[in-house]
Amino acid sequence: MNADARKITIPNEWDRRGLPGWTYHSEKMFELERDHVFRTHWMIAGHVSDIPDDGDWIAFDMLGERAIVMRGQDGEVRAFHNLCRHRGARVADGESGHCRGALVCPFHGWVYNTDGSLRGVSRPETFDDLDKAEFGLKPVEMEIWKGFIFLRFLPGPQPSVATLFAPFEADFDAYKSAELLPEGDVLWETTLPVNWKSIRDVDNEGYHVALAHPGLQDLYGRTYRDEVFTGGVSYSHGHFGDKPARLWSVKEYVKASPERPDLPEHLQKAWTYYGLFPTGVIAFTPEHANYYQDIPLSAGETLLKGRTYRMPGEDRQARIARYLAQRIDRETSEEDQQLSIWSNESMKSSAFEDFHLSDLEYGLKTHHDELRKLLPVMRLAEAPPEDRLAQSNEELALALQGAG
């Protein structure tokens, strides 16, 4: 898909209201989101370069689900529920690690091969005729696309990751995303006292960039665009280098960022962002890449986490540019976090009535539309009683099916 084909047409008239404020602090709403949004949609777990050697593994936890992604002794990458089939203990503890040939449950010593099969149990004479073939680690649905690892805990409405990102396959190939290498060994993460939707509301529009993000405004200013696609995938981009920068970090970054004649024109001197509903983003600059996403912990608390990757064959100039790009990114993230807190606070105020969105916030509207499709109860301006919220959602879903 060329750059011109990505341009969207925003309707002259559209519903500029956002989700009602009650959906940001309802505990029962959060339970519906857990079951119908997060467990049933693709989440980013990492990149194949995070587990380069046989026996390497990374963990991914979310809303009561625990997964382990491991490269087996045969070199294959697989994903499993991180629970022993005996009593449910974690077979691997921590963010990442390495096992020499098998995983040993720390509770009772059940042993699993790196392909997930059960090798043996401790004190086997104390069990009946236990069929080891029936007690391997339970698999988690996984897809590897252009090097990135995606997990889904329950079947859901989204098609394959490859289908979702098909419009951008050429971009990921141009960036050589399958060849990325991790920068450092630890995921970055921070926790905010907000509902996860407040974070998405800030990240899903560029209207605030000019005032809220001095670094980004100095970097790419009015060239920033949000291109929104149906089906839960979005594309945003900004180009730099066409005007003198004022801020030191931006000025030095523009000088250091390497020329990339190997990239197509629309990716040269550009920062690009590829969003995946509900909370995932994969971002590229000419010298590095990263992913980040929001993992809800409760209705009022959210974990932000992600990882940075460098390009293969990185030289000193690219390393300097990557450092400066990350510095700009960190400042931007801190600014967005404060905006998320202020926005989330307003949802409980008696003065809050509704959003009135700009055309520059159409990306936020499409995100809300995806949520309304999944959870029709979000269409209600007033909150149903908490104890009837799930029932109200089912009734609305049935009514919409009948009307359709």
UniProtKB/TrEMBL annotation:
Entries under SUPFAM superfamilies matching the protein: Bet v1-like, ISP domain
Cofactor: Fe cation
Domain Rieske: 43-151
Gene3D superfamilies: Naphthalene 1,2-dioxygenase Alpha Subunit, Chain A, domain 1, Rieske [2Fe-2S] iron-sulphur domain
Alphabetical UniProt keywords: 2Fe-2S, Dioxygenase, Iron, Iron-sulfur, Metal-binding, Oxidoreductase
Molecular function terms, GO-annotated: 2 iron, 2 sulfur cluster binding; dioxygenase activity; iron ion binding
Protein name: Aromatic ring-hydroxylating dioxygenase subunit alpha
